[in-house]
Amino acid sequence: MTNTWWIVQKRYSQVPFPRRHFCIDNAHIIQERRDGLQEFMAFIIWLRYTCQFLADLPGPTRHKAQYIVNLISRFIEQPVEVEEEAAHIMLTLFT
């Protein structure tokens, strides 16, 4: 994990979680959707870091894991600074 923050700008329709209702969205529905988005994004970030770990290991899953990392990085519009900071952290840990 890095210390760099960025804002992910996605429409609710771009991620799978509770959809809007035809009636006026009340506070409960809005909170349900907000929680769903937060849970989805937390899973995406976890998946990215898990795949990055697998991509750094030798073996047959390496290329597929890197492909998933690249897909997620594009989806969350990850800034270059985050990748640079992560690489710096990895160098520090393993040298």
Q: Quickly count the domains.
A: 1
The coarse overall form would be elongated
* Beta-strand content estimate: under 5%
Compressed to H and E, one letter per element, the order equals HHH
Put simply, the count of helices is 3
List keywords for this structure.
mainly alpha; 95 residues; 3 helices
Write up this protein.
- GO terms for molecular function: phosphatidylinositol binding.
- InterPro entries: PX_dom_sf.
- The protein has one domain (26-94).
- It is 61% helix and 0% strand.
- The protein has 3 helices and no strands.
- It is elongated, with a radius of gyration of 17 Å.
Write the layout of secondary structure elements.
Elements: H1 27-55, H2 62-75, H3 80-94
Helix pairs in contact: 1-2
Short description:
InterPro entries: PX_dom_sf. The chain is an all-alpha fold and 95 residues long.
